[in-house]
Amino acid sequence: MNQSSSQFVCVRKELDDEGFDNGLISIVWRLEAQGLDATPSRSTVYRVLKECGQIVPQPHKKPRSRRSFECTAPNGCWQIDGLEHCLADGTVVCIL
């Protein structure tokens, strides 16, 4: 284990001991706060922690694919976004 990998592992453990999230983003933020000259990317931290056995890949957590809408005829399917908002007088309106 080289110095950078041991530093990543130490920061990960420090965050966990302090009760904070010890994920990749938190590790990079902590390294930045410590004044590290060249802050590593999240992918570098992930690779190093994976090589050290600190992270076990979970392929079943792949991002879900986007849902597509298909219709048999042109203009057969429409989609609109709406947002409910409460006005000052208590009236609920839908913003399209």
Radius of gyration: 23 Å
Helical content stands at 25-40%
The largest β sheet comes out as: 2 strands, antiparallel
SSE succession? HHHEE
Please give the number of β-strands.
2
Oligomer: single chain
The shape, in one word, is elongated
Give the overall pLDDT as a whole number.
84
Strand proportion, as a percent range, falls in: 5-15%
The computed structural class is mainly alpha
Low-confidence segments = none
Count of separate DSSP helical elements:
3
| Largest sheet: spatial strand order | 1-2
Query: Roughly how many Å apart are the termini?
Result: 55 Å
Any overview of this molecule?
The chain is mainly alpha-helical and 96 residues long. The chain has a domain at 3-57. It contains 3 helices and 2 strands, in the order αααββ. A two-stranded antiparallel ribbon has the order 1-2. Helix 2 crosses helix 3 (42-51). The longest helix has 15 residues, at 3-17. It starts with a helix and ends with a strand. The mean pLDDT is 84.
